[in-house]
Design brief:
Oligomer: heterotetramer
Distance between the termini of chain D: 66 Å
Structural class of chain D: alpha/beta
Strand order of the largest sheet of chain D: 7-8-6-5-9
Radius of gyration of chain B: 40 Å
Distance between the termini of chain B: 86 Å
Largest interface: C-D, 54 and 51 residues
Strand content of chain D: 5-15%
CATH superfamily of the largest domain in chain D: NADH-ubiquinone oxidoreductase 51kDa subunit
CATH architecture of the largest domain in chain D: 3-Layer(aba) Sandwich
Largest sheet of chain D: 5 strands, mixed
Number of strands of chain B: 6
Chains: A mainly alpha (about 290), B alpha+beta (about 450), C alpha+beta (about 700), D alpha/beta (about 575)
Shape of chain B: elongated
Radius of gyration of chain D: 23 Å
Number of helices of chain B: 13
Order of helices and strands of chain B: HHHHHHHEEHEEHHHEEHH
Largest sheet of chain B: 2 strands, antiparallel
Shape of chain D: globular
Helix content of chain D: 40-55%
Strand order of the largest sheet of chain B: 1-2
Helix content of chain B: 25-40%
Chain lengths: ~290, ~450, ~700, ~575
């Protein structure tokens, strides 16, 4: 979610809450013999802060039921961002800016990590989509990259087969674990031989299982590779070569997309589980606090 | 060119793909369950192992350190409703501690833990924050009647009322004329032993003050004792009244002084009957007592009477140096006649001067305690402006601001209420018998 | 001048009539000259050159076409001649997909036989690099251009022998190939599938196509017998012989079910005797897919999701359910009867749609069950069409007219008047029915299939609407300026009822309420078009047209600068639609937006009715890939034992419905990142392009060729 | 006024649609089919045959770059690739086109059917950008060079600039009569047709289109065919790379062509004549049409030629354009509205069943018709002695390629090629070596420079294994790789093959592939045998001359430059042309 002008009311409200909280805290911190969760105000901070955190955590539950008409997810997301952001000052006020001991300290650290990852995530969500849009014009659905890739292999196979008559690629049984392609090719002076050779030995392994170390994974070296290939082939094949090049480009973009998608979503691996842990421990903390 | 129409792109997609979670999402699910589970297991593990440290709110005070791992010592659940809440009860505290009440008509009667907050580290529980006091004293209400003290007390140095003694217009209630400036002159004072430079401590000494009713708590040490004639004044301000008698008159009530003078003279003449007729040595008479041209005494009684009158006159004038004479009183004294028959007792009524009571204040701040001991590194005059004081009525107590020079939050010296004031009225304290043995906590 | 001439062939003196070709002269004398392009029943063309012989001239002569000259010395088998001939065979073999379809099927590919005979085992020449491809569009003839040697035999067969004039050469030089009509796919051409071309073809280029290898169950018929049936008059006997297994006669006892709604089929039925009931047992109304995830969870879901009961305005006023037969079923009582001489299952057979209704024999019936190839032939057969049309006029025209709300009030006498005056026409997929700008001379009622209505614009074509059975078109031209305002194109096999202009004018003048109804609809249509076009002024129309966005009423746009690709929208869509998503997060791009789904409404809408039969036509025709077929498991009553329920899987087309039962589309509602938007495309992109001041980047994908 | 055309109107119909829509939409084709009652496949057959017609909407800029022979020498193919790369992704379709007939002003390109000569890359780019920006054809046309009109030396009617010192034998000719069509007038009055034929036979005038069939015999043959309806056709479809002489004649002496055709028509008994002109020669078409209109106005054409009882109509037929249309029977097919596929011969056009619409037809080249009135006007003796070294006559030759003054030259027969190339055409560029020359475009093969001393003479050339052909001399200097030139020539034939017969359709493609392999150093051990088999089959079995001459360029290169060909097999291109761009 991009934080833009449409967030103004949220920002104002958050600022107001923050100001109120701070305003209440100042005399409290000055006047009260002690600060912290045990005091009335501290407890109040704790309750409100926990409330925010709980709401913020509920986003993931809300996402499980996308069509529930319980407020637009977007609103929830805004709440997630702003109330989540507010929860830190409130919890700090609750704790009197102390990290506490034992569980409380673990909570604080967890909270810090969750918060930091959240900030990081917000930043990523702010920037990565633009980068993906810019760098991966042939983007597809992340979950379908494998599927699309298989279709690209098919497309390339067909392309080469169409261009050069037949393509006999025997893939050894997967059980053997070998990735080397056994190929049977005609040996006569066939103008398409360089194409097939290139395809079977270089491009197909790349398209099938792209690796970043493969020469075709690099735009420049791939372009060079195709430039070398072209003069070996009759002009009539150049269209096919251009198509293959485009397939490689798509392949590269898919790799890039997978990578960028990983970056865009990896923080969630930290954020979400830890926030659940945080909630679990926070509840333990609350129980402890209520009991003792 | 490869044709990539929207439709072709869309058709590449397996329509049910979203039902299968990709690695990232799967890991998110796994971790979302695993990590909270680990967290719960961690906390539950401690609970199972009986280790309470993780959910201790913090280390307990040094005094209670012995019970740090035994929560139930304080968190008794016996009286908790439904058995869940285990807040620290008054009873738990009072098991070991005597905590007399504050004042009878205070409005709320806070629980111990309201002020003495545990789990805040190795602190002294007695040192409670001002807020707790200010809560009430900031806007004091009482159950009944108007409070005798300021009802709006706040932080020391700013919202704390000026010490009553040091307020504008306050006067020292003492009646003893004492010119501090005169005594504290740098040139010293002339005494019988020559020029003497006086130190404050020559007159003022710290003293212990015990609670009036024999309670166990000392009120405070290090108050200054009141100056004392015998110790501090007599050396210079002697009460000799006759050159023949070495013993000075006692520093006592006038009638006692009269009796003592007469007794001393009677005893002297009895011992020296020859001197009845011997006139006084004019050189040894006080300057303002010119020798009377009168005939020699006829008898001892007359001699005593004459000499006693002189001596008393002298002495009363001496009293007037320090004490304020309020008039005369009539007292009945025994007849000063030669006693033929000692069994006969004849009394006469005489009049003697009367003096105001001295009213020397020994404790200026009655609601607070001050200990001079920690302040010994200071010069007395740093706080007490005695050097220039010429009048008894001058208040020499420092003002609040003087204290706040150091006793301010920003200056380091303790400025909280408990520094000077006591919450518990220790006058009402009583002994408590210990409920635990040390071995309980081994 | 003598009529007989004498010449020498391979050293033998032969005498032949003047005008005899060397080939014939040699053959008459027992000398076989190999050839590929020559057939006795066709005019020689001399293009394969395999029959070349040495006549002592500068170059060899093609024996098949060269007439004998007196005293000519012909050598047919000298080493250089054979060498040249073998080279030709080798050249052809180089590009031949050996073994070709013919060789595989019957082992009689003439080229391969010749290659084998002349010892050409493997061509030494490089293979063709630009494939000419296959054409699988015809129902009865498979075309493999790869195997074509351009012998022109099919061309002459089609032209000279059958006088059908369909096949010709297209292109030039090495890229020349045979083409049908304007080089159309054979199935879309005017080819009548007479089979002459495939009989003529020496290789596997044109081969008989078996729709299914298996024999249809039933009584196989002798072509002679079939040809005696009036409706088969004029059908090629060769064809029937070749496709014997595709047409059977079946006798069905009363009460037996002939076909069942929802089933897939590939046959059509022609009733010879008896009558049948046609009915819909279970309109797949509101068929929902069971959500496999969790019972209670989905219950909670649906409870919280707060659906409104909603009837689409488009549905109201419907009184008939169109089915794959010459009758419509009344909405409230879906039952009809068909009798002898009627054909049903046409759409199923032609387009492999699932059956749209259940048919049960009312009496004992005799039907001809046929596969697509036979039906195709029949439909091209004038006799058969005439018979079908007669039937239609008699019984279906009236119900059909009345199924259109505007005509429901038409009195019976006028229907009678129209009965014989209307023209019944048929169009193949892609064929233009009326063309924008032409004079409006008729009014059309769609009988079968789907019609695309589009307008021409400088930037391209704007699709205005799609019409199906029960819709009509052509009224705007007739009521308005007399000029067609839009082009109507057949999307699949389309049958229309054509009411001539004067009849139409008569109708509207006699029935003012019909006129008013038509004019109202016409005004609405015109107004919609006008508004849409008026708002396009701000939008770069070519880019819009390229992407087809013009045709949308509402788009789901994903702002790719905001979208984190979290897939919430897809999940929400699936949740809202019984576990299948109608939203595919891939496809059109416009600027920074991904157009994830497209929704049309009013005249532009694709309404997926509850009686969707899962034919997939809409899915195939959707240019965006926004309509998809999903399998739904449903329980339907067993038509044979009404008390029993049987589970079947039905496919149902789905498309974005804007989550009509909710206030806001679920996808937009569920987007956490403010990236999903439902927009009205013209307004939205209009503003956007105005803001961007024309610095539009356009799409990188969709328009690339 | 001219009567209704005897040629088909189908191309006019198609052109009209194409003018209206920019291409041939399916619906329009269906409409014509219905109207003319022509099966659709016939329309498709011709529309897809001629590159002139678009079956799909054309690009905004349809750019066709010539890369044959001379244009190849001037970098036409590189220009095409550069432009293609530069305008990739734009609405410009840049493709190869066979010879545009501007060999003396190479390289030539056509933008939206307008031809531009000697086009640099910058000029071409500017043109394409103008076209992309929407410049109309008329606007583009303003950038063209107008045709240069120079008088023809041997024109008996016009006193031209006769100061040329290059042509001593023809430049001092004086006009014999001031009135054009004088010869025709004489013969219309005398009707001495057998005499005319005798004169032509005596002059030894041959068909100058390349085949060299004696003209007098041809005319006599048609004249003697039974039947009333005969036709006479002028083959002005000059499409062979290097051949530009007819363009020169049509530009500068249209009246002699028309006069020759009328004479031919009257001799042969044809009432109708058609000038079949290639569509790239728009200017010439206009010049001829203008001349024809003038003739109709002056009573030279039409009913009653010059007041006599003889009638003759003449029209211009614009070819839908292809090299194969230069083949006489293919030309007739095209005129009949069919695919321009050559017919099996016999019957020949002059015979019954072989000509236009099956009628006996005289078909001659522009130059042939041109020389008829010239010879008749100037007399046999002049013609016989006009040549050098015993050769008879005058010839127009086009010299192009690596010479400094390319152009069309009117030269005496028998002049040595070396003189023609090195003196008249200015020779190769300074510092370059004259390496080889093609005496007759691609069809005549390549001869080494040492054979340049051969005279321009039919017999001498035939003896040397070459041909005078159409007089399209293309010169190569030492920068040319002969294998590459042979490939270029073979590729031209492949591109122009009509596809009717197997040897030419498949063989030309396979031969191109084979030679392409050679230029890339891929020559198998059996390739020569393969080539010989293929060459034999093509020469012997192709229906028409195109197929038969496909192997000629490579045969001549193998014969005269074997070392250069062999070097390629070792991966070396002595001229440094091939293998460029290879890593």
């Amino acid at each position: 979610m991009i934080i833009d002008r449409s967030h103004r009311s949220w920002a104002v409200a958050s600022a107001a809450i923050l100001i109120v909280a701070l305003a209440a805290y100042v005399p409290y911190a000055v006047g009260s013999p002690r600060v912290g969760g045990g005091t009335t105000l501290g407890l109040a901070y704790g309750i409100v802060g926990f409330g925010f955190m709980a709401f913020v955590t509920l986003l993931s539950l809300r996402k499980k039921f996308p069509i529930w008409r319980i407020g637009r997810t977007q609103t929830w997301m805004r709440g997630h961002l702003w109330l989540g952001a507010l929860s830190l000052p409130l919890i700090l006020l609750h704790a009197g800016f102390l990290f506490g001991h034992g569980l409380a300290s673990v909570l604080m650290w967890l909270f810090a990590v969750v918060y930091a990852s959240g900030i990081c995530g917000a930043w990523l969500q702010h920037t990565m989509p633009r980068r993906i849009l810019r760098d991966v014009p042939m983007e597809t659905i992340y979950e379908q990259i494998g599927h699309v890739r298989a279709q690209l292999v098919d497309e390339a196979d067909r392309l080469v087969a169409d261009a050069s008559g037949r393509l006999e690629v025997a893939v050894p049984p997967a059980a053997s674990g070998a990735t080397v392609l056994a190929t049977v090719m005609r040996v006569d002076a066939d103008v398409t031989a360089p194409l097939r050779e290139f395809y079977v030995h270089e491009m197909r392994p790349f398209v099938q299982a792209p690796s970043r170390s493969h020469p075709l994974a690099n735009e420049t070296s791939a372009a060079g590779r195709f430039e070398k290939l072209r003069p070996l082939l009759p002009v009539s094949l150049h269209a096919a070569v251009a198509d293959l090049e485009s397939i490689c480009e798509e392949e590269r973009q898919l790799m890039r997309q997978a990578r960028m998608h990983g970056v865009l979503h990896a923080w969630l691996l930290v954020h979400v589980p830890l926030s659940f842990a945080l909630m679990a421990l926070a509840i333990a903390h609350i129980i402890g606090a209520l009991r003792y | 060119m490869r044709i990539r129409t929207a439709k072709m792109l869309a058709e590449r997609i397996d329509l049910n793909y979203f039902k299968r979670a990709p690695a990232l999402r799967r890991w998110r699910y796994i971790l979302s369950i695993a990590i909270p589970a680990i967290a719960v297991l961690w906390i539950a593990g401690y609970a199972a192992a009986g280790i309470r440290r993780p959910y201790s709110a913090g280390p307990v005070s040094s005094a209670h350190a012995f019970a740090e791992m035994k929560c139930e010592v304080c968190h008794t659940s016996a009286n908790a409703p439904a058995g869940f809440r285990a807040h620290v009860s008054e009873k738990a505290c009072l098991t070991c501690h005597d905590a007399p009440a504050h004042v009878v008509n205070q409005t709320p009667s806070p629980a111990c833990v309201n002020c003495h907050v545990e789990h805040s580290g190795r602190v002294q529980l007695a040192k409670v924050g001002d807020g707790l006091c200010v809560d009430c004293h900031g806007d004091l209400k009482t159950m009944q009647g108007a409070p005798a003290i300021s009802t709006t007390v706040g932080r020391f140095g700013s919202r704390h009322p000026e010490f009553a003694a040091a307020r504008e217009g306050a006067k020292d209630p003492g009646t003893i004329r004492f010119n501090h400036a005169l005594h504290m002159t740098k040139d010293g004072v002339r005494s019988l032993r020559g020029i003497e430079i006086l130190q404050c401590t020559d007159c003022h000494k710290a003293a212990r003050i015990l609670p009036p009713q024999g309670g166990s708590h000392e009120l405070r040490v290090g108050l200054m004792s009141a100056a004392n004639y015998q110790q501090n004044c007599a050396r210079c301000h002697g009460l000799e009244f006759d050159y023949r008698i070495e013993q000075p008159a006692p520093h006592d009530k006038p009638e006692a002084v009269r009796a003592a003078v007469r007794t001393a003279l009677q005893n002297y003449i009895a011992a020296h009957p020859s001197e009845i007729i011997k006139p006084d040595d004019p050189r040894r008479l006080p300057l303002n007592f010119p020798p009377a041209a009168e005939p020699p005494a006829r008898n001892a009684t007359e001699w005593v009477a004459r000499r006693a009158d002189n001596g008393e006159r002298l002495l009363w004038s001496r009293c007037d140096v320090c004490h304020a004479r309020t008039g005369t009183v009539t007292v009945t004294v025994p007849q000063a006649q030669p006693v033929a028959d000692p069994r006969r007792s004849v009394t006469v009524t005489v009049s003697v001067p009367a003096f105001a009571a001295s009213h020397i204040a020994t404790r200026w701040m009655v609601r607070a305690a001050f200990d001079h001991t920690p302040h010994l590194m200071l010069q007395c005059v740093d706080c007490h402006a005695a050097e220039n004081s010429q009048l008894t009525s001058d208040i020499l107590m420092p003002k609040q601001a003087t204290c706040a020079t150091c006793h301010a939050p920003s200056r380091g010296a303790e400025a909280r209420c408990f520094e000077c004031h006591q919450y518990h009225d220790w006058r009402k304290s009583h002994a408590v018998s210990p409920a635990f043995k040390l071995t309980d906590f081994r | 001048m003598s009529d007989q001439i004498t010449l020498t062939i391979d050293g033998r003196d032969v005498t032949v009539p003047r005008g005899t070709t060397i080939f014939d002269a040699a053959r008459m004398n027992g000398i076989a000259i190999p050839t590929l392009c020559h057939q006795q029943n066709q005019t020689p063309v001399g293009v394969c050159r395999v029959c070349v012989v040495d006549v002592g001239a500068r170059v060899y002569a093609a024996a098949c076409i060269r007439e004998c000259d007196p005293g000519m010395k012909v050598k047919t088998g000298t080493e250089p001649v054979v060498r040249a001939r073998n080279t030709l065979v080798e050249l052809l073999m180089a590009d031949h997909p050996s073994p070709c379809a013919r060789q595989q099927a019957s082992g009689d590919c003439e080229l391969e036989a010749m290659a084998k005979a002349s010892g050409v085992s493997e061509a030494r020449y490089a293979r063709r690099l630009s494939p000419r491809g296959r054409d699988d569009s015809s129902l009865s003839i498979a075309v493999d251009h790869e195997a074509c040697i351009l012998c022109d035999r099919c061309i002459r067969g089609c032209d000279e022998v059958k006088k059908n004039h369909v096949i010709g050469r297209s292109g030039r030089g090495y890229s020349a190939h045979i083409g049908f009509d304007l080089d159309l796919p054979m199935g879309s051409s005017t080819c009548v599938s007479c089979g002459e071309c495939m009989v003529s073809c020496p290789t596997g280029a044109l081969t008989n196509k078996r729709v299914i290898d298996a024999q249809l169950p039933g009584e196989t018929l002798d072509p002679e017998w079939i040809l005696q049936l009036p409706v088969f008059k004029g059908v090629s006997g060769t064809f029937l012989e070749l496709n014997k297994s595709s047409l059977v006669k079946r006798r069905i006892a009363a009460g037996e079910v002939i076909c069942r709604e929802g089933e897939f089929g590939s046959t059509a039925f022609y009733i010879l005797e008896g009558s049948v009931d046609v009915f819909i047992g279970t309109p797949i109304a509101h068929v929902k897919q069971e959500d496999a995830s969790a019972g209670w969870l989905s219950r909670i879901r649906s409870r919280l999701a707060d659906r409104q009961e909603h009837t689409r305005t488009e549905e109201s006023g419907r009184r008939f359910i169109p089915i794959d037969a010459p009758v419509d079923l009344p909405y409230d009582k879906p039952l009809a009867e068909l009798g002898a001489g009627e054909l049903f299952g046409e759409m199923t057979c032609m387009s492999f749609h699932p059956r749209s209704a259940t048919v049960r024999a009312k009496t004992e019936v005799v039907v001809l069950e046929m596969l697509r190839n036979v039906l195709d032939i029949l439909q091209k057969n004038k006799t058969f069409r005439a018979e079908l049309d007669r039937k239609y006029r008699q019984r279906a025209l009236e119900t059909h007219l009345r199924s259109v709300p505007v005509f429901s009030s038409m009195p019976a006498d006028f229907v009678d008047y129209l009965r014989d005056r209307v023209e019944l026409s048929r169009y193949s997929p892609g064929e233009v029915i009326v063309r924008q700008g032409e004079a409006a001379d008729a009014f059309y009622l769609v009988r079968l299939g789907f019609v695309k209505v589009s307008e021409r614009h400088p930037g391209g074509e704007v699709v205005l609407t799609y019409l199906g059975r029960g819709s009509y078109f052509g009224e705007m031209g007739l009521l308005g300026g007399g000029v067609r305002t839009a082009t109507c194109t057949a999307l699949d096999h389309v049958d229309v009822v054509k009411i001539a202009g004067e009849d139409f004018q008569l109708m509207v003048s006699r029935f003012p309420d019909i006129r008013a109804g038509l004019e109202k609809v016409a005004r609405e249509r015109a107004e919609q078009n006008r508004q849409r076009l008026a708002s396009t002024e701000h939008v770069p129309i070519d880019a819009f047209l390229n992407q087809g966005l013009m045709e949308a009423q509402s788009l789901l746009l994903l702002d790719l600068e905001k979208c984190t690709r979290c897939d919430q929208c897809v999940r929400a869509c699936a949740d809202a639609h019984d576990g299948v998503t109608r939203l595919v997060r891939e496809g059109l791009r416009f600027d920074k937006y991904l157009v994830a789904s497209i929704r049309r409404r009013n005249s532009m809408e694709i309404i997926i009715e509850d009686w969707c039969i899962g034919c997939g036509l809409c899915v195939r025709n959707c240019p965006y890939g926004n309509l998809n077929l999903h399998p739904f498991e449903i329980k339907v009553p067993d038509p044979e034992k009404p008390n029993r329920m049987i589970a079947t899987t039905r496919k149902k087309a789905t498309g974005c419905d804007l989550c009509m039962e909710h206030a806001e589309p679920s996808c937009v509602y569920a987007c956490p990142h403010d990236a999903a938007h439902r927009v009205e495309p013209l307004a939205f992109f209009g503003t956007m392009s105005a803001v961007k001041d024309g610095k539009r980047t356009g799409s990188t994908e969709a328009t690339s060729k | 006024m001219p009567p209704r055309s005897i040629a088909t109107s189908i191309f006019d119909e198609l052109r009209a649609i194409q003018r209206a829509h920019g291409y041939l939409p399916e619906g329009e084709l269906r409409t014509i089919g219905d109207r003319l009652d022509v099966p659709l496949y016939r329309l498709q057959a011709v529309a897809s045959f001629f590159p002139h017609f678009f079956l799909k909407p054309p690009a905004r800029a349809e750019v066709r770059v010539c890369g044959d022979m001379s244009c190849h020498r001037y970098g036409g193919n590189e220009l095409r690739e550069t432009l293609a790369a530069r305008f990739q992704g734009q609405d410009a379709h840049i493709t190869h086109v066979s010879c545009l007939g501007r060999c003396d002003l190479a390289p030539a390109i056509a933008v939206n059917d307008h031809i531009f000569e000697r086009t640099s890359e910058a000029e071409a780019s500017a043109l394409i950008e103008a076209a992309l920006a929407g410049a109309s054809p008329e606007q583009l046309a303003t950038r063209k060079h107008p045709p240069q009109r120079t008088p023809v030396m041997c024109d008996p009617y016009v006193a031209g600039d006769r100061t040329s010192d290059l042509e001593p034998r023809t430049s001092d000719l004086e006009p014999l009569t001031s009135s054009q069509y004088g010869v025709l007038r004489t013969y219309v009055q005398s009707k001495d047709w057998p005499g005319l034929i005798a004169t032509l036979k005596a002059s030894g005038l041959r068909g100058l289109g390349g085949a060299g069939f004696p003209t007098g015999m041809k005319w006599e043959l048609v004249r003697n065919q039974p039947g009333d309806v005969k036709y006479i056709v002028c083959n002005a479809d000059e499409s062979e790379p290097g051949t530009i002489k007819d363009r020169h004649i049509m530009t500068n002496a249209p009246h002699l062509l028309v006069e020759g055709m009328i004479l031919g028509g009257l001799v042969a008994g044809a009432r109708h004549g058609v000038i079949y002109i290639r569509h790239e020669y728009t200017d010439q078409e206009h010049i001829l049409q203008h001349e024809i209109d003038r003739c109709y106005r002056e009573g030279i054409l039409g009913t009653g030629v010059m007041g006599s009882d003889l009638s003759f109509d003449l029209e211009v037929f614009v070819s839908p354009g292809l090299y194969i249309c230069g083949e006489e029977s293919a030309l007739l097919e095209a005129m009949e509205g069919k695919r321009a596929e050559p017919r099996n011969k016999p019957p020949f056009p002059g015979q019954h069943g072989g000509g236009l619409w099956g009628k006996p037809t005289v078909i001659n080249n522009v130059e042939t018709f041109f020389f008829v009135p010239v010879i008749l006007a100037r007399g046999l003796d002049w013609f016989k002695t006009a040549g050098r070294n015993g050769s008879a006559g005058v010839k127009f030759v086009g010299v192009s390629g690596d010479v400094t003054r390319p152009g069309v030259f009117e030269v005496p027969m028998g002049i040595p090629y070396r003189e023609l190339i090195e003196q008249l055409a200015g020779g190769v560029a300074p510092g370059r070596t004259f390496k080889s020359f093609a005496p007759s475009g691609p069809a005549g093969g390549f001869l080494p420079a040492r054979m340049a001393d051969l005279p321009l003479d039919w017999n001498a050339m035939t003896q040397a294994g070459a041909t005078v052909g159409s007089g399209a001399i293309v010169v190569c200097d030492d920068r040319a790789c002969m294998l590459d030139m042979a490939l270029n020539a073979v590729r031209f034939f492949r591109n122009e093959s009509c596809g009717k017969c197997v040897p030419c359709r498949v063989g030309s493609a396979k031969l191109t592939d084979l030679l392409t392999g050679w230029t890339r150093g891929r020559r198998g051990p059996n390739d020569i045998a393969l080539y010989e088999d293929l060459s034999h089959a093509m020469r012997q079995t192709s229906i028409c001359g195109l197929g038969q001459v496909v192997p000629v360029p490579i045969a001549s290169v193998l014969k005269h430059f074997p070392d250069e060909v062999d070097a390629h097999a070792k991966g070396v291109c002595p001229a440094g042309v091939c293998f460029r761009g290879r890593a």
